[in-house]
What we know:
This protein is of the alpha+beta class. The chain has a single domain (about 10-165), classed as FomD-like (FomD barrel-like fold). Helices cover about 20% and strands about 45% of the residues. It contains 2 helices and 11 strands, in the order βββββββββββαα. The chain has a 7-stranded mixed β-barrel. A hairpin with a 4-residue loop joins strand 4 and strand 5 (about 55-60). The longest helix has 20 residues, at about 140-155. It is globular, with a radius of gyration of 16 Å.
Amino acid sequence: xxxxxxxxxxxxxxxxxxxxxxxxxxxxxxxxxxxxxxxxxxxxxxxxxxxxxxxxxxxxxxxxxxxxxxxxxxxxxxxxxxxxxxxxxxxxxxxxxxxxxxxxxxxxxxxxxxxxxxxxxxxxxxxxxxxxxxxxxxxxxxxxxxxxxxxxxxxxxxxxxxxxxxxxx
Length: 169
């Protein structure tokens, strides 16, 4: 008797804004699950439903996406067709909530990217606008920029889930 092919477990990743409104979501497959984080795989060609922009985006690359329950960021490593990391995208966010089939987090606007071997911090203007709109506390504002510095350091030092190769263009 032929062995049935096992189906990968699917998780729905949901990002929210600070007011609890859904921001975007996508379906990803389980790669690994740990006590304090989960690693999900995003297939090339998958779709992301972006509610804030009222749009659907199709990914042209595969990803490994890291969601932590004890860190204030998420990390997506974006792969080329040869399996090399070509970009990194980190959302500064509240720590994630992980259930049996969902990963949820609150996006805090600021993102840390690695493109062509260079670290960039983007969407600070969006954070500045939203800190008034959503009423971010002083402690939250401080934590966001401490996290930006931590992510930049971890990328530079090659700390998990990053490695130094991502800084080579």
